[in-house]
Write a structure and sequence with these properties.
This protein has helices at 4-14, 17-30, 34-43, 62-69, 82-94, 108-111, 133-143, 157-173, 184-193; strands at residues 52-56, 74-79, 101-105, 118-124, 144-153, 196-204, 207-214. By secondary structure, it is an alpha/beta fold. Helix 2 crosses helix 5 (82-94). The N and C termini lie far apart (35 Å). The model has no long low-confidence stretch (mean pLDDT 93). The structure holds S-adenosylmethionine (SAM).
């Protein structure tokens, strides 16, 4: 298995500026992708006025723009992809959000140490990019004062088969990045063990989209 550093370098190569520009254009035309839109829907009822958000692996930043437009005070985008970060930073500048946004490159489990706890954390299609889901989710539960929302793939035999095809694709490309399918039951138990209660769940095939609230 690749080291986390190799893995993040692989993510940087795969989620490159070209991909970011393409996704950004789609976002401008059609709005957020389905799983992202579902996270927004789950958080729509929550009070984000004056609150802070960390969007881990924020991509082109759709969740961050929604948060700021709804009255959020501050967003932090932590991403292993320099192409996505640059695209998101350009969009923030275009909208005059420079003072309310920050963009940090790296593995969130390293970068969390550099920033304060926040009210909301989102991990939209990120856990499936990370070999050690326990590390990334335990760290996220620690860093959030209120809510953690995430989308992650369904598990099972078919999902494992698709993961293997993904492994082959990245192997043939010579990229250390790999997709991961983690056990759904264990992800849910992890939140419970960290003092979180699930307040929303939807299935947006093939993604589970869930929001957890800190209760302890
Ligand atoms: C599939 S993309 C999802 C982007 C966006 N959230 C969306 O749903 O459109 C996964 C993102 O997670 C980032 N990523 C993967 N592992 C990461 C880590 N450990 N720390 C920070 N970002 C990470 C990748 O660089 C990439 O931008």
């Amino acid at each position: 298995m690749a080291t986390i550093k190799e893995h993040c370098c692989g993510a940087d190569l795969f989620f490159n500026k070209k991909t970011a520009v393409k996704e950004y254009k789609t976002f401008l035309k059609k709005g957020p992708l389905k799983a992202t839109a579902k996270i927004i829907e789950q958080l729509e009822e929550e009070d984000v006025e004056g609150k802070s958000l960390i969007d881990v692996g924020g991509g082109i930043g759709a969740l961050q723009w929604w948060f700021l437009k709804k009255g959020g005070k501050q967003t932090t985008d932590i991403d292993a992809s320099s192409g996505y970060l640059k695209q998101a930073e350009d969009h923030a500048a275009k909208n005059g959000w420079q003072n309310q946004t920050q963009f940090l490159m790296g593995d969130c489990t390293d970068v969390y140490d550099q920033i304060e706890a926040v009210d909301f954390i989102t991990l939209d299609k990120v856990v499936c990019c990370y070999p050690n889901y326990k590390e990334i989710l335990n760290a996220s539960c620690d860093k959030s004062l209120g809510y953690v929302s995430l989308s992650y793939p369904m598990d099972g035999v078919i999902a494992q088969g698709i993961k293997r095809l993904g492994d082959l694709f990245f192997f043939l490309k010579g990229n250390a990045y790999r997709p991961y399918v983690h056990p759904v039951k264990d992800i849910r138990a992890l939140f419970s063990n960290n003092g979180y209660e699930r307040i929303s769940h939807n299935l947006v095939f093939p993604w589970h989209v869930e929001t957890y609230q800190r209760v302890a």
